[in-house]
C-alpha cells in the first residue's frame, strides 16, 4: 500500500513557535515569544508614496510577469550596499531575489542537498533553517555555540569525522541565542571550512541592527566563493513583502535560478519595485538608526531587569544587536514546564529545545525584546523571575 | 568525490521558453511565444486605490509578518466565488494562498512525491509543471490529448500498468494546447481515477477566461476530495503579485501548510491585502468580461488568419478560452528548425518538444494570442505561413 505523503514530510518537526503563538494570542499576555520586528518603525507613509510612484510611472510593467532573478536595479542596490558597508565586491548577477531569506534556505536545500548529505548547524540553531533543510533529509551535525561563536574544537572534529557539504550559521546576533562571532572566530571558521571544502551558508538578517560595539566583517570576506550569503529586507524595512536575497558564485547561481523558477517563477515584482523606490527615495541609514536606538533601549531594559530580578543560577546572553536573548536555566529545570506556569502569570517565551537537532536544550529558552514596549519589559521579566524562582524551589 | 549539487537539479530541463524569450527581446519581432496576459487590462488605478486604502487603514499590520495559510478574508472570498460559479462547497481552511499556482505545484511535489512515484501528465503538458515536479524525481507517464481531453484508453492502460499517485492536468483551455475537456470526459476521468485511487491535480488558471460556449464543471465536482485544485489571480487581475491558491482536503492541507512554511513562511501579505481590497471594491466580473471580449477577438483573428494563410497540411486547435493555440506541422518538419527561420522573418513562437516528457512533439508549436495586438496577429501569422510553406517545399 503506497503512502499518500512523501517520506520527507514525515521528518519535519511541527513548528513549535507557530503553536505557541496560537496559545498566546491574548493581549493580556506579555509576549517575549514572537520574532517580530517592531511595527512602530514600518515606513507606512513612505511605502505608500513609493507604491503610488511606481504605479503612476510604470503601472502596466510593475503588474506584469518579470524575470526569475529579480529586478536588476534592486540587485544593483544590494551589491552597492555590500560594497559600501563591507567592502565586499559582489556583482548583481550573483544576487537572486527571494521570498525572504526563508526561501533562500529552501532553494539552497533544493540546489545542493542530497539525502544524507552532511550539514552542520549551530547548537542552538535557527528553527526555520532546521525546518527548511529537513525537507531535503540531510544528516544534521550540531556544533555548540560559545560566547564568541561556534566551538572550534567541536567544529574541527565534526569536519574530520563527517563529510559536510554545508555549514549553516548566523554570525551576527544569532537567532535564537543573540550570540555574535568574534573576528578571530570568523577567520578560524573560514580556514577550517576552506580546508574541508565545506560551503558556509551565512545567514545575516540582523547584521544591520548592531547597537553595541563595531561591525565585524562577514565570513564571506574570508571564505569568498565558498560562502552563500543570505540577506533580507524584513528586519530593516518590513516583513510583509517577503523580500530577501541570496548571494552565491555564478556556477552555483545558474542552478539556483532553475530551482527558483520551478518554485514560483519569480518573487512579487510589484513589491520589488516598491521596495526599490522606497530605498532610493529615503534615507535608509537614518531609518535603521532609529530602529537600532529603540531596540538598543529595549535590550538594555531586558538585560537590566534580568540582572535585577532573576536568581543568580540563571545565565543569559547579552546581545550586541538583533532581536533575541538566550536564557539557560539550571540543568534540572524544563523550560517547557516553565512555559505553562508562565502563561498563567501572563508572560510568554519560546522554550529552547526545538532549536536543537539532538534533543538537548530542555533547560533553555529564547526571549524577544524588539516587539515588546519598554515599559512592559520590566513587568514581564519580573513575572518570569517569579515563575523561575518558584520552579527552582 | 562528492558532487557540489543535488542530484535532483541535474534532471531539470532548462527552461526553453526562458531562453527563447531572451532571443526575441526585440520590439520588431511579433512574438506569439510569451505566455503573458495583456497588460492593457491591468487595473493600475484600482490597485493604486486599494494599496492606499489598506496602508491608510491598517498600515502597520499590512506590513508585518502574517500567517502561513494566507489572509482569511481573501480565502473566504475565493471559497465564496467557487460556490457562486461552480456550486462547489469549499471551506476557507481548505485554501492555502501560494506565490502563483507555480508554487502550488512545488508544494504538491514537496508534500506528496517520493522519488519514483508515478505521475501522469498530459501530452503535451504544461512546461512549468514538468519542471516543478521534476525536482521530486517522479516517474512521468504521459497521456495524449485528443480534441475533447485526455485519451481515455491510454489513461486506462497507464493506470492499470503503473501505480500512479498523481495525475496533473489543465482541463480548461490547456497550456500549451488550448484544449478543453468535455463534460463526459471529465466524468470518465474522475471515475477512472477514483478506481485507481489517483489524485487529480486540477490546474485551472484560465477557467474564468471562456469566450466561446458554456462553462463546464471542474473535475473536482466529480472526484471531490481526491482532487487538488489550483487557481490564480495572475490571469484575471495581475501576475506581478504572484498570488494563487491551492485547494485540498484537510488531511492533505495540514501537511501542505508545513511545506509552505518551510518554503517561505507565507506569501506577501501586503499584496494579499491589496488584492482583497481590489476584489471587494471593484466589479471583477465586469473586468473579466472585458478581458474575455478582447482575448476572444484576438483568438478569432488568429484562427481566421491561420485558415486564410496556412497550407492545408497544418492542423491546429480552436480554443474556447484561455491564451494559447496549438499547431501540428507535417511529421517531417521540425519546429525547432522552423523557429530559426521564423526569427529571420520577425515572428516567434514556442517549439512544442519541451512540452513532452518523452521526446515527442518535434513537429508541434505553441502560439499565444493574448499578448499580441489584433492588427499584428494577421501580419505575424502571414509571416509564419510563409516560413512554413518554405519549409514544406
UniProtKB/TrEMBL annotation, chains A, B:
Cofactor requirement: pyridoxal 5'-phosphate
Keyword Lipid metabolism on entry: no
Key words, A-Z: Aminotransferase, Pyridoxal phosphate, Transferase
GO molecular function, one term: pyridoxal phosphate binding
Pfam families xrefs: Aminotran_1_2 (PF00155)
Origin superkingdom: Bacteria
Domain Aminotransferase class I/classII large intervals: 40-384
InterPro entries from the UniProt entry: Aminotransferase_I/II_large, Class-I_PLP-dep_aminotransf, PyrdxlP-dep_Trfase, PyrdxlP-dep_Trfase_major, PyrdxlP-dep_Trfase_small
Record carries keyword Transferase: yes
GO biological process per UniProt: alpha-amino acid metabolic process
Assembly, per entry: Homodimer.
PANTHER family, sorted: AMINOTRANSFERASE (PTHR42790), KYNURENINE_ALPHA-AMINOADIPATE AMINOTRANSFERASE, MITOCHONDRIAL (PTHR42790:SF19)
Similarity section: Belongs to the class-I pyridoxal-phosphate-dependent aminotransferase family.
Protein name: Aspartate aminotransferase
Organism: Orenia metallireducens
Lineage, highest ranks first: Bacteria, Bacillati, Bacillota, Clostridia, Halanaerobiales
Amino acid at each position: 500500500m503506497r503512502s499518500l505523503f512523501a517520506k520527507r514530510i514525515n521528518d519535519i518537526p511541527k513548528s513549535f513557535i507557530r503553536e505557541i503563538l496560537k496559545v498566546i494570542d491574548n493581549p493580556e499576555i506579555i509576549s517575549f515569544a514572537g520574532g517580530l520586528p517592531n511595527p512602530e518603525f514600518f515606513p507606512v507613509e513612505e511605502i505608500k508614496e513609493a507604491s503610488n510612484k511606481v504605479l503612476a510611472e510604470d503601472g502596466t510593467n510593475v503588474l506584469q510577469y518579470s524575470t526569475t532573478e529579480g529586478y536588476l536595479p534592486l540587485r544593483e542596490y544590494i551589491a552597492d550596499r555590500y560594497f559600501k558597508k563591507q567592502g565586499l565586491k559582489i556583482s548583481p548577477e550573483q544576487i537572486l531575489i527571494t521570498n525572504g531569506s526563508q526561501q533562500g534556505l529552501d532553494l539552497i536545500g533544493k540546489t545542493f542537498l542530497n539525502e544524507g548529505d552532511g550539514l552542520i548547524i549551530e547548537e542552538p540553531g535557527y528553527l526555520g533553517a532546521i525546518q527548511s533543510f529537513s525537507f531535503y533529509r540531510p544528516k544534521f551535525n550540531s556544533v555548540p555555540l560559545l560566547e564568541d561563536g561556534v566551538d572550534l574544537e567541536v567544529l574541527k572534529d565534526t569536519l574530520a569525522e563527517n563529510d559536510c557539504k554545508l555549514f549553516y550559521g548566523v554570525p551576527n546576533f544569532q537567532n535564537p541565542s543573540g550570540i555574535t562571532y568574534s573576528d578571530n572566530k570568523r577567520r578560524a571558521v573560514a580556514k577550517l571550512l576552506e580546508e574541508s571544502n565545506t560551503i558556509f551558508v551565512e545567514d545575516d538578517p540582523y547584521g544591520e541592527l548592531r547597537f553595541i560595539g563595531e561591525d565585524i566583517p562577514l565570513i564571506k570576506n574570508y571564505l569568498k566563493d565558498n560562502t552563500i550569503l543570505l540577506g533580507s529586507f524584513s528586519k530593516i524595512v518590513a516583513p510583509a513583502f517577503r523580500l530577501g536575497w541570496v548571494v552565491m558564485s555564478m556556477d552555483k547561481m545558474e542552478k539556483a535560478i532553475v530551482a527558483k523558477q520551478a518554485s514560483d517563477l519569480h518573487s512579487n515584482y510589484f513589491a520589488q519595485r516598491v521596495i526599490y523606490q522606497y530605498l532610493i527615495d529615503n534615507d535608509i541609514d537614518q531609518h535603521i538608526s532609529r530602529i537600532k536606538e529603540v531596540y538598543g533601549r529595549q535590550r538594555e531594559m531586558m538585560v537590566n531587569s534580568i540582572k535585577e530580578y532573576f536568581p543568580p543560577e540563571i545565565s543569559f546572553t547579552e546581545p550586541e544587536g538583533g532581536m533575541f536573548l538566550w536564557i539557560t536555566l539550571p540543568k534540572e529545570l524544563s523550560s517547557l514546564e516553565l512555559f505553562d506556569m508562565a502563561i498563567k502569570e501572563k508572560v510568554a517565551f519560546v522554550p529552547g529545545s526545538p532549536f536543537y537537532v539532538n534533543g538537548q536544550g530542555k533547560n533553555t529558552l529564547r526571549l524577544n525584546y524588539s516587539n515588546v514596549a519598554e515599559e512592559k519589559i520590566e513587568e514581564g521579566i519580573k513575572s518570569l523571575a517569579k515563575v523561575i524562582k518558584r520552579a527552582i524551589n
